Amino acid sequence: MEKGRAKPREASGVPVGAGMEADGAPDPAALERELRAAVAADARRERENDAKLRALRQRVPSYQEFRNIVLASHLKPLEKKDKMGMRRNVLWNPCAAHAKATQASDVEIPQELDQLPGTSAEFYRDWRRCLKSGKEKYQFLLELGGKALGRIFQADLGFGLLGEFLTVLAENVCHEDRDAVLQILQSLSGTKRFGLNMDLLSESEKESSRDLFRKLQSFGTAGHPSRLASCEAEREAHLTHTSLQKEAEERIVMELMKCYQVN
User: 88: buried, middle or exposed (CB in 10 Å: 19+, 13-18, 0-12)?
Assistant: First the structure.
């Protein structure tokens, strides 16, 4: 080979002499690295193709969900040994905040849920695989909040999830969480195909929706005076503010009842 002339390359862009030592003998370490890289690339292509076929069979409603499924194709279900690591205990009963300590119950949160989901694919994974009880799912929704849920499901709310959300909220809602639950309901009502999801609710899910709004109406306004008014003018101002706040909240509840087809 003439001096200064570039080494010939194969179609892959790798020099012909790759995996060879200076004296022309095969370099076992380099060959092993190339083999591992080729095997990993083949495995990735096969895994992503399987994910694409699975998404097509599921008839996902949007390209974004299709893309999320493909991007998450490398994730594997957690095994029992993976869940036996470090855990953290938190109080998962928000209704017991002002109750006796003996009435509070600690629920263990799996370590894999230390990070909240940011995409619909991550949400589906955590909702289906990691959360077992209704209380866990309820606290999960509260921790995410209405704004995050609206962002995650901006493109579309997956089939069946709305009914599950309404059932979980109806079974666990309490007075202290009224504002947070209203925000969640508002965000979900703004997702695409919300009307279609409402039409697909089962009778039991529709009853859960009615039960949820009955409870929200019975809770009334969450505001409570922290101290007695020091004078008549202050007392009247407080009553006026409370009345306006209650009227605004009732308007929100009534608008949501129309959205969720609750008579």
Answer: exposed
The tens digit of pLDDT for each residue in 37-70 reads 888 888 888 888 887 888 787 777 777 777 777 7
Rounded distance between C-alpha atoms, residue 184 and residue 180, angstroms: 6
- Alpha carbon separation from 53 to 43, 48, 153, 258 (Å, rounded): 15, 9, 23, 39
Token reading at 183: 């925000």
Residue 204 is encoded by which pair of tokens?
């039991």
CA angle 15–20–23, rounded 5-degree value: 120
Q: Which of 123, 248, 130 is nearest to 188 (CA)?
A: 123
Instruction: Specify the residue for token string 């949501």.
Output: 256
DSSP string of 34-60, one letter each residue: HHHHHHHHHHHHHHHHHHHHHHHHHT-
Structure tokens at 179: 């504002």
Structure token digits, residue 246: 């209650």
* Beta strand ranges found along the chain (DSSP E): 88-91, 106-109
Identify which of 107, 161, 165 has the alpha carbon closest to the alpha carbon of residue 141: 165
CA dihedral 242, 247, 250, 251 (to 10 degrees): -140
- pTM beyond cutoff 0.85: no
Write the DSSP string, 145-172: HHHHHHHHTSS-PPTTHHHHHHHHHHHH
- Tell me what percent of the residues of the chain surpass a pLDDT of 70: 65
- Phi, psi (5° rounding) for residue 130? -105, -25
